[in-house]
Write a structure and sequence with these properties.
It is a single chain. The protein is α+β, with helices and mostly antiparallel strands and 179 residues long. It has one domain (7-149). It is 60% helix and 12% strand. β1 (33-41) and β2 (48-53) form a beta hairpin. The protein is globular, with a radius of gyration of 16 Å. The N and C termini lie far apart (34 Å).
Length: 179
Amino acid sequence: MEVNFNFEELKQKIEYATKKSFQENFEKYNSDICAFALVSDDGAMTVVPFINTKSHLNKMILEDPDYKNSYEFEPDEWFTSEGANSEFNEICKTLSKQIFRGDIDFKNFKITLFETCVQVLEKLRLEKFFEQQLGKDLLIRFSISDTDEPKEHLIKWTKRLNNKEISSRFTDYVNTEYE
């Protein structure tokens, strides 16, 4: 079965929604933002933005320092998944509709969706979109909720989206936690 889906159009929609989400959150939290992620799921039916703030991260670390790295690197531990809600809801509806059609090559669809999300984040990073808004670098992730995705993929994506220092710390975290 073929993946008969316009991923270029989806990529444009994800980029627009990502920018809008980040800008909406920047208006609320300004330079307190320290991380941004797009998160999908193993069913390839969602794309959701997450942000973390320094104040939230510090609060979580104070409450339970043993999970410092999880609070920093895992979007499900982050501050919020708000921003561009209607745009991301529309993206999720489009993905779900495609999945439920049932006549797709699911494995290739999922791989292409994940790569599309990484490409959007990578493009915005290379254009310094986040850095221009914040005036500094931040952690950028693509993640999959409730997954058994190989840790090598998580590391590869994070290396594409971050500077060497962040990538190195993430790699150490994943190699310690994902055994």
